[in-house]
C-alpha cells in the first residue's frame, strides 16, 4: 500500500482532535449536501489578530474516509499555529485540492496534507476533503478573525 494511502487511512481511523471540547470561541456545523458528510468544528484561540495562536481544534464528524482524514490532518497541522501561518497552510491545501492534479502540494507547508493530493483528480471528492477546512474558516470568522485579510498575508 502506498504511504499516502496509509496516512489517509491512519488519520481516518485515529482522528486527531476528534471529540468536541469546551473552552472554544466558535462552533460551526457544515454539511456536504452532495454526499452527506458532516462536521461540527470548534476552535479556541489565544490572543487576537494575525499573531493569535490556534490552541485547540476539536470536532465531531461523520462521513467518508477522505473527509475524516482531511479534518484530522487539519487539526494535527494547524493546532499551535498562528492565524497567519494557519491561513497560509489553508491556502496551500485549497490550491492543491482544486488543482485537478497539477499541484502535488508542498510537504514543508502542509505536512501530512500532501497525502490528499490525489483527491484533486476527482472533483466530486474535493468537497469531501475541503469540508473541515471550510468549517475552520467559518469558525475563525465567528471568533472575530478577518480571514480575507489573513489569507492575503496582510497584517491587521
Question: Keyphrases for this structure?
Answer:
156 residues, Sufe protein. Chain: A, alpha+beta, NIF_FeS_clus_asmbl_NifU_N, iron ion binding, 6 helices, Nitrogen fixation NifU-like protein
3D architecture notes:
With 156 residues, the chain is of the alpha+beta class. The chain has a single domain, classed as Sufe protein. Chain: A (Alpha-Beta Complex), CATH 3.90.1010.10. Strands 1-2-3 form a 3-stranded antiparallel sheet, covered by helices on one side. It starts with a helix and ends in a 5-residue tail after the last helix. The mean pLDDT is 90.
What topology emerges from the helices and strands here?
Blueprint: H1 3-13, E1 26-31, E2 38-46, E3 53-62, H2 65-78, H3 83-97, H4 107-110, H5 123-142, H6 147-151
Antiparallel strand pairs: 1-2, 2-3
Helix pairs in contact: 1-2, 2-5, 3-5
Short description:
The protein is of the alpha+beta class and 156 residues long. The chain has a single domain, classed as Alpha-Beta Complex (Sufe protein. Chain: A), CATH 3.90.1010.
